[in-house]
Amino acid sequence: MEANASGFYSTINLVKTIVGAGMLAIPYAFRSDGVLLGVILVLLAAITSGFGLFVLAKCSKALKEPRSSSFFTLCSITYPSLSLIFDFSMFLQCYGVGLSYLVLVGDLFPGVLGGTRHGWIIGSSVAIVPLVLVRKLDSLKYSSILGLFAIAYLACLVLGSFIESTLLTDNYKNIRGDVSWVQVYDTKGLISTFTIVIFAFTGSMNMFSIINELKDNSLSNINKVVSRTMFISSIVFLGVGVSGYLTFGSNVMGNIMLNYDPDSKLTVVGKLCLGSMVILSFPLLFHPCRIATNNMIHWIRITYSETKEQPASNNESRPPTTPIFMTVEDEEDRLLLGLGNSYQATSCQDASHDLEQNSVTVARPAAGVPFSDRAFYTITAILVTSLYLLALNVTSFALVLGLVGATGSTAISFTLPGLFGYKLIGSEAAKHGRLMSTADQILKKCSLLLALFGLVVTCVSLYVTLYFEA
């Protein structure tokens, strides 16, 4: 697959992956947090999520073929026994959110344009099916641009209402409740809305597709994409969060669109933009969902089928049909992979001594996970069909979605990037017989802190989901 994506369009796709319907819940989080803490939490989420994306990019450079990077390939060389679990987490996250988008389409459009819930869900396939049939994330750049126009309108609606009601007139006195600038307004609410802000910047699911498809996928160029994405997303979230909260104060609802006059033409257009944004966001979540499904099928096939046919000797290579595993015979390859985490040694000689104690066969992504045309279309058909069937029969699954978000979003945003970084950062130095740089040592320790942060977020998120939504 030709890599010809530009940094500009990659930024657009990543921003559209991050900024979605959840943007309209940010003012509700500010309602409990207050302005000061709300801003701090948004910035914390941006920094931690952005650092996670940066670590994933840096870890991809530890591979001999960086354009074959994915959660699956990195798991295969760091925590091979957990590859299936991590891809299953990715699958659940993307599948669950994609399903929620279809349900939202069925709930939103009938109230604006008439018709039935089932009719609008089925009708959305006219736009969605062609978009999910594209193989490259970069091919979704134009639909992402349309989605960004919808986001821009919604953000302007919130900001414009704030300017009109608060800065230019005194209308806010009739619609705004209490406002807390410094103190936390509602401690219980702070806990219950914590996940709204912390998961706002989830975009890791498409990070590797962006890395693989960028024409210039140097680390510096990838960092520019990540930096621009986080800056734009932060401005949008802070703008909507602060202006929406200052407009309605403690009266702001979970979806700020519910605070506006439902008969207003501006509100009607806003709801249409919201529905369009959801439809255009669906393919961006479906793309990593399909990849995760193919990875799981591949893992099961090579683990429980082909491995049984292999010779007992550890010195014989696996056939070409199993590209994730191969024999590593030279010291350079072992050092590059960081086998046994040996690159933490203070010298190349120490690392070599440690490597001699390990088996010569390790997991390494040689050419990426194969994805034939037949598998691509079969998986796409099964996933799309199942999603639509569930959307037609499910109206609310907040608890399940909350549990998926608490585990899946945390894993791909914080825990996994942190664990990968702790294992792989510094492997290039060991490969060339150099000491790990001070910068890499700091990044390695920060990666471990990111993984620990992810575990804390998981615990808090599960508590919030089970205690407040069960």
UniProtKB/TrEMBL annotation:
Matching Pfam families: Aa_trans
Q: Which residues form the Amino acid transporter transmembrane domain?
A: 5-458
Give the transmembrane region(s): 12-30, 36-56, 77-98, 118-134, 146-169, 189-208, 229-248, 268-286, 374-391, 397-425, 446-468
The way it spans or sits in the membrane comes to: Multi-pass membrane protein
Record's GO cellular component, any one?
Answer: fungal-type vacuole membrane
Keywords, A to Z?
Answer: Membrane, Transmembrane, Transmembrane helix, Vacuole
Q: Does the keyword Amino-acid biosynthesis apply?
A: no
Q: Where in the cell is it found?
A: Vacuole membrane
Note the Gene3D superfamilies from the entry.
Amino acid/polyamine transporter I
Give GO terms: molecular function aspect only. L-arginine transmembrane transporter activity; L-glutamate transmembrane transporter activity; L-histidine transmembrane transporter activity; L-lysine transmembrane transporter activity; L-serine transmembrane transporter activity; L-tyrosine transmembrane transporter activity
The answer to whether UniProt assigns keyword Magnesium to this entry is no
- Similarity annotation: Belongs to the amino acid/polyamine transporter 2 family.
Q: Which PANTHER family match?
A: AMINO ACID TRANSPORTER, VACUOLAR AMINO ACID TRANSPORTER 7
Q: What is this protein called?
A: LAME_0G12486g1_1
Species whose genome carries this gene: Lachancea meyersii CBS 8951
